C-alpha cells in the first residue's frame, strides 16, 4: 500500500495524465482490495489475452489524480 501511495504522489507531481488505471485479475482479491483501499473506482470487468489466445478476466480500477498544476512562464 505504501508503494502505491508513493507512486500516486509521484504521478500527481510529475505526471501528464489526470488518471491512473490498474488491472488486477478478478481472481486476485488482495490486489483488488489494495485498489479499493487506495481510493480507486472500479469500472467493471475487462478481458485481456495472456498468453495470446487465453482470456484473462481483470477488473479496471481508475484513480483520478486531478489536473496537473499549470506552469507559468518566468520572466
Explain what you see.
The protein has a three-stranded antiparallel β-sheet, with helices on one face. The chain has two helices and three strands, in the order H-E-H-E-E. The mean pLDDT is 89. It is α+β, with helices and mostly antiparallel strands and 75 residues long. The chain is elongated and about 55 Å long.
What is the mean predicted local confidence, pLDDT?
Answer: 89
Biggest sheet overview: 3 strands, antiparallel
End-to-end C-alpha gap: 41 Å
Give the ordered list of helices and strands: HEHEE
- Work out the number of β strands: 3
> What value does the Rg take, in angstroms?
15 Å
Helix content range of the residues, please?
25-40%
- Strand fraction equals 25-35%
Low-confidence stretches: none
Strands ordered across the widest β-sheet:
1-3-2
Q: Structural class given helices, strands, pairing? A: alpha+beta
- The number of helices is 2
Give the overall shape, derived from the CA principal axes: elongated
